[in-house]
Amino acid sequence: MSSPLITVLMTVYNGGEYLKTAVESILAQTFHDFEFLIINDCSKDGSAAVIQSYRDERIRLHNNEVNLGQTRSLNKGLSLARGKYIARIDADDMAFPAWLKTQRDYIAGHPQCVVVSCKGAVMNGVEEIKKILNTPLSYEEMIFKSLTASPLNHVGSLYDKDAIIAAGGYDENFKIAADYELWSKLVRQGRLLASTNDVLVAIRVHEKSISIMERGGTDLKEISEVMARNFQALTTTILEKEDVVLIWKLIYAVEYLSDQEFSRGQGLLARAYTSFRPELPLDPKSVQDFWRRQRRVIGVKRIFLKWAGQPLLKIFPAFYEAVNRRLAQKRMKHPILR
Asked: Which of 59, 135, 153, 262 fits a disulfide with 195 by CB distance 3.0 to 4.6 angstroms?
């Protein structure tokens, strides 16, 4: 039997509640030359039975003997996949029908790219669309963004399997930021990333999702580690560990910074954006424009959150109380910010 062009790779751990929607969205793709490899990571909720209820020869179910976690399960999937390309989807998300065809067509026309991602619609537990999760469309902006955040959406991405394996696959030291580290590793190696300007997947955020601020200190540890690697590889700026943590807070927790910390964090980040290594294919004006936009976003976010504590918003007591209750919950659940 000939190998399929694409392996759709999904990992599942107790994903039964939304699993049918995810599986059926893959089986309804307009592009058909794929296998659907599902790594069941010792689910206890009947997820395996849900998968086995489908009589579609494209589905391949692999049951881990022990719980490996998502990152190691993804590497297991890379080793088992028969396709030339890997397409990533999660068990509680959904792909729109043209997803695989659009991404296949793009990468076929841009063979120099090792990965292509897309925009994603963020939906809640009852599939109401809340916002669009954009990604940079130019390679320059992907380099800029990679200093502080993942430059691509992991869900919805299509990548060259052999290139990812050659790059070392997913770093199993990362549980939360493995995709950020993978894309960053490719950027650091000078590989070309891309994203289409199409909304091709829906990413579900629901009551069982784990937000950035509710994962203890793991997100800070992992994301700041990737940031540190990127600052070192892509810029000539020398940053201490505490400098990187301060920049993390500037991006992800700006409401907790004092005025002095806020000013220092902006200064550190500005220094990094003005010290990209000369061998990188970057236009100085594009760098300035990106930093100007990012600084504006950080400033607006900080101003809004400062307003949340001012008497003006007490005109709207329900909103005022909700904002402050949310901030209090974040402090309680995130030891770094207490």
From this structure: 135
